[in-house]
Amino acid sequence: MSALEAAQAALAAEHAAVYGYGVVGGRVGAVRRAEAVAAYDGHRARRDVLRRTVRDLGGEPAVAAAAYELPFTVPDSAAAVRLAAFLEDRVAGVYSDLVRAARGPLRRDAAAALREAAVRAARWRGGDVTFPGLAERAPARP
After folding, report:
1. Number of domain units in the chain
2. Is 132 part of any domain?
């Protein structure tokens, strides 16, 4: 995978995360709403940086879809918390690919984004995973 392809995949994941956090924010309880807003803002900022990165790499940035299919129904706060962890795991995975594909400052930025997603996922989940961003090393989920 080239750095441009990996950056486009990260941008697409950030678009989906921004959408997903709109759902999370609407369903999560008041106790965790500030955390959802902070994550939403963080993903918007990363998305904007990735748009510039894709252009700098010679590509045309992928645009957000009008809507995204959620991986499961989100009727309540508990499901919203699971969705937030799912979103962060997905984002960590694409940033892992970008770390592998990139060099220099882009690689450092991707590693920082991977770390941020892993930390957010651990907070939402209430525990961490051994290899964040590496689906082939992640424990099986029910």
Report:
1. 1
2. no
